[in-house]
Design goal:
Layout: E1 23-26, H1 30-39, E2 54-60, E3 66-72
Parallel strand pairs: 1-3
Antiparallel strand pairs: 2-3
Length: 81
């Protein structure tokens, strides 16, 4: 599944006002993915948001693009799959 979401130009969700997009990866096991990335030397935030649609964590690629990891939750808005 591919999803494109448009944010307002003054959004703070992308963390850096110069960024124009963020890549979101859906993962089955957020804690496991965070552990693997940290073992590889990456800096990943702890899951800090856990709305009904799932859990989220973030990291930044070498070019400065913010990456979002999403583990879908049981909420009614979570996609099937």
């Amino acid at each position: 599944m591919t999803v494109f979401a448009v944010f307002d130009s003054d959004t703070t969700y992308l963390a850096d006002a110069t960024e124009r997009f963020m890549i979101n990866f859906c993962v089955d096991d957020l804690d496991g993915m965070i552990a693997k990335l940290r073992l590889a030397g990456e800096t990943v935030s702890d899951p800090v948001e856990e709305p009904p649609i799932g859990r989220f964590a973030w990291l930044t690629d070498p070019e400065g693009t913010r990456l979002e990891l999403w583990e879908a939750g049981p909420g009614p808005e979570a996609p099937a799959g």
